[in-house]
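Q: Hi! First time asking for a complex rather than a single chain. Here are the components, and I think there are two in total. Is that enough to go on?
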Amino acid sequence: MLPIVKGVLEGERRSLARAISIVDNDESESQIIIHQIFHKTGSAKTIGFTGSAGSGKSSLIGKLIPVFQTLGYKIAILAVDPTSPITGGAILGDRVRMQTIIDDDTVFMRSMASRGAIGGVSKSLRNAIRILDAAGYDLIIAESVGAGQLEIEISRVVDLTVVVFTPYTGDNIQAIKAGLTEIGDLYVINKADLAGATTLFNSILDLIGNTERKPVVLKASTKTGSGIKELALSIDKLINSAGSSYKEKEKRMLEEELKDMVLNIVELKLLDMLKNNSKYSDYIDRLVNKKIDPYRAAEELSAILLR
Amino acid sequence: MLPIVKGVLEGERRSLARAISIVDNDESESQIIIHQIFHKTGSAKTIGFTGSAGSGKSSLIGKLIPVFQTLGYKIAILAVDPTSPITGGAILGDRVRMQTIIDDDTVFMRSMASRGAIGGVSKSLRNAIRILDAAGYDLIIAESVGAGQLEIEISRVVDLTVVVFTPYTGDNIQAIKAGLTEIGDLYVINKADLAGATTLFNSILDLIGNTERKPVVLKASTKTGSGIKELALSIDKLINSAGSSYKEKEKRMLEEELKDMVLNIVELKLLDMLKNNSKYSDYIDRLVNKKIDPYRAAEELSAILLR
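A: Yes, that's all I need. Here is the structure of the assembled complex.
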């Protein structure tokens, strides 16, 4: 057993942080870590928290934590940062803010950079969840700053997705555009003390009333504290009542993961083959000179590679 | 030659609309259409217009069009809609709004649904541009509603990317988060008549001053008309001065496209192989029962498939 894995299983924080970095950066040790902890996983419940910037997700999570702790959960938070696919840098403003809100030694918190490539987030997040799960955290919250595709990826990895809205103008339409109304299992109108909360609540109800899923819609206010306890209890109920549908989802997630990983392996092999194949640059020249069209070039080239 | 291709080459609008739908939906005819028009392409200039919802992109484009027409351009606009990867439906609100702004028979306008899968947009857009290019449109504007990954994809397909900001609170930070400051060749502070425009202008200058690229930053106001002509002239200058760097970009784009298409073909073959391989469900069962970890399963399975 790797020393870092021993540290993880003992819940030692520095090992946990390091192990999460390793899987997040997809370092070569990832494989060994996951291999050595995989059989210890499967008991944690996972929640995704999403919503546009300014919706007050971090504050809301901060208020929910004490209630979850009363219910006996050992909590970890993974903050998934939107990372630029170009510079690779993470924006840490929100994280800093969150750390000041959640000033609690019993809660483990870690930022993850969401790698540019779609699919990268799922892989990092799945493995980070496994590490925390093996370390004994039984409620893992993945929080992300609303950014379309990212939310959808996260919602596919967690047991329950909570979408946070606020009653300020535009959030409603923005959210629809981002497809947020389709990924949630539970919707919260945060800042319910503000004017417009009821209107927003009703329009969210209208929107998702047309869907087959019957997600829960609730109001809460981090300012007045109203609805916080009800929200925590609803989440607790949902993640524990899923039963067979949860097993089904887990299987589907593993299937998805296996498929992604196999495709990745094959893709890497293929890119390597392309790089070393002189036919590749021939085809590009012919494309540039319009001697062949992209469809035909792709077909011929893939036939050569698969031969 | 397909009748629809004949229509496209004659610039006949119904053929154009239908051909764009065909490539957007990736129907089987796409291949033949692209094959038959590919040698007629390569003269159009392409611009991507992006920015968050409410930044006034559509109005701005509406004001720029008459100026571009004065410069002699025949203009087509492709509006790329953010499509839900789940329902597949496009949100057409913005498009309807745009159609009322741009009420000009000489401009060809068409909405495209951006398919959920990343990479799907590039493919659709590249081929739609080719169709318009072959039809004689020499300035093609791809307009999209700000949504992170989508913008980046579009910026890789067009010659020039224009990012539109407005001086309302939050847009600045939102934009940084979405990585918008990295994809632009030209930045416009729209609604420059509003308070805060100068502050925003300066912070955008600050932000991109740290980058190696030296993009242009301008102010404009659709309301007062200030800066519109300057913006159009700047765009015209940039798309026509690129010279050798433009040739380089075109080659890089074709390379990227060929690689994507080859990977897609191989991926489809592989998924087919997976579906029909009994080992696949064996591995999933073993994963569910934690008898094997995902890394090992993926490696073993890909070795079986590639054998």
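A: The radius of gyration of chain A is 22 Å. Let me know if you'd like any chain examined more closely.
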